[in-house]
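Standup notes
- DV: blocked on the single-chain target, sequence here:
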Amino acid sequence: MSERLYLFTRFERFWHWSQAALIITLLLSGFGIRGVHGMADFETAVRVHEAAAWLLIGLWVFAIFWHFTTGQWKHYLPTRDRLAAMMRYYAYGMFVGEPHPYRITLERKHNPLQRLAYLGIKLVINPLIWVSGLLYLFWGSVRDSVPGFLGLEQVAGLHALGAYLMLSFLLLHVYLATAGHTPLAHIKAMVTGWEEVHDAPALDERRGWRRKAANRWRGRQTLR
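- DV (later): unblocked, structure below
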């Protein structure tokens, strides 16, 4: 048995995919500025980076306003309910086909680990990136106002640290997006807005394809 929930509104889907595109653009252009790759020359990378940064700031301003006016901010409040069960599921259970310990509802869109991850993004990674980025951009105007131990090189290092943290989150986020009852179920939900919440019969199906993947991995290890 399964239930279809209209979980993600048009604005949420627009915000999610626009944010993803801008973050990827910022990562690529930022690493280009630091000489990690040669996909664009330095000046082009700087212009793209600055344009994407201002667009993302504008998007976040609208997103913050939307979350507080609609009450959607409540979905990000941290909770310890089933936190240990979710940690065990992501570390072990999903690889051996155990059922998902958290059931999504319209009142609880995100599981406890997702809430902590998103809270960390909003309270740690985002402020680190934006404060260091704006300091770097306007360094000529603000350098006399910052503490003496904080130089331009340190500001650039903090900005790079924030970028690597964001990249780590992005890679983990994409990987865990495949942890639904099928590998593309969560991604499809973020495109259409409709999430299929499955009960025990569908969980058996999920156990099946995850078990097959685990067996294939074990087979490769045996051949080695």
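- Follow-up: The beta strands are 2-6, 194-198.
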